[in-house]
Write a structure and sequence with these properties.
Blueprint lengths: L1 H16 L15 H23 L4 H5 L1 H21 L8 H24 L15
Helix pairs in contact: 1-2, 2-4, 2-5, 4-5
């Protein structure tokens, strides 16, 4: 249950944060800072999605296809969040923010795959009841 709560909280926090007008945020100190923030947030969301998706028992298709499910979910959620921001004063719908979201998710999935291979026989948080090789 704790993995599902973390995942849900991150989804809610992303939605709430993207509902604030842009003038409520500090100015960026360098040009790509915004994209790095998107990358990092969706990296963290993808790790929490992996834990939630692989620990749940109800939808075996999501558990068995966790990596594809993570990228599909985060791409959809990130895209919908960008569309949502179009309607927030001072914000905009930015295609490159969406690409940064997907990149963060993709790199998180690659990192999880590498960690699973490195710690294949160890009992750790990245191992699930179903092995998602």
């Amino acid at each position: 249950m704790k993995y599902h709560i973390l995942f849900a909280v991150l989804c809610i926090v992303i939605f709430i944060e993207s509902s604030f007008p842009s003038d409520s945020f500090p100015d960026k100190s360098f040009e790509i800072e915004d994209k790095l923030v998107h990358f990092a947030i969706y990296f963290a969301l993808s790790v929490s999605a992996f834990l939630s998706f692989t620990k749940q028992k109800k939808l075996s298709i999501i558990r068995e296809n966790a990596f594809v499910s993570i990228i599909a979910f985060t791409a959809l959620y990130g895209g919908l969040d960008e569309i949502h921001q179009y309607f927030v004063p001072g914000r905009n719908c930015d295609f490159y923010d969406w690409i940064a979201n997907i990149a963060g998710s993709f790199i998180a999935v690659l990192a999880i795959i590498i960690l699973k291979k490195m710690f294949k026989n160890k009992n750790n948080i990245f191992n699930s009841d179903y092995d998602t090789n």
